[in-house]
Amino acid sequence: xxxxxxxxxxxxxxxxxxxxxxxxxxxxxxxxxxxxxxxxxxxxxxxxxxxxxxxxxxxxxxxxxxxxxxxxxxxxxxxxxxxxxxxxxxxxxxxxxxxxxxxxxxxxxxxxxxxxxxxxxxxxxxxxxxxxxxxxxxxxxxxxxxxxxxxxxxxxxxxxxxxxxxxxxxxxxxxxxxxxxxxxxxxxxxxxxxxxxxxxxxxxxxxxxxxxxxxxxxxxxxxxxxxxxxxxxxxxxxxxxxxxxxxxxxxxxxxxxx
Length: 258
Hints:
Layout: H1 2-15, E1 23-26, E2 29-42, E3 45-56, E4 61-74, E5 79-90, E6 104-119, E7 122-137, E8 148-164, E9 174-187, E10 196-210, E11 213-225, E12 236-250
Parallel strand pairs: 1-12, 2-12
Antiparallel strand pairs: 2-3, 3-4, 4-5, 5-6, 6-7, 7-8, 8-9, 9-10, 10-11, 11-12
């Protein structure tokens, strides 16, 4: 699966908006704050909660904010499935801003399949995610209520890894290395030539406070293709962004007897 998706990505990059030259490039410094929590409510069921605050220009300018709520079902020690709802707001930012005025909303449903493996000390996780997206747009001046909702589909593949630094396994009070690469591909109607949506490459240092609480400080490099060309020039726009993410993970277990 991983080899197939990576091969497909190179093909799509060569035939979609990345193959249209010349392109306008826009770069931003990222500062993302991320909270994630999977809270167990039954032996094989958990409630997923997530919030992300994303800013650019070294935190001076709002970029996006996102809230996610879902259910996680563990099928085996290696396999789990999940799904739920995501709400996103995108603000106006950058030289070639996609949002003309007020922040524009997006509603999503998502479905995940996650596989976990271990190669010696290296922990690996693969996640395949399907998203059904409803993107809202306001009037031409960017003001007033949402005038239109456009439906799109997207598939995402993430390969993530962790590596303990203080022993063969990751235990409480220990540091570890973390990294991932995630590819986003749009498909279906209303996508047109914007098949390649984005790619995120990240790596950094984590600390496991307890088995249910972790903190990570990571470097993030994001390539993101705009859905529409720049209205002034008619050229495709690609963002080449980099910066830091602070990730906090805290899980609660409501099945434990007090």
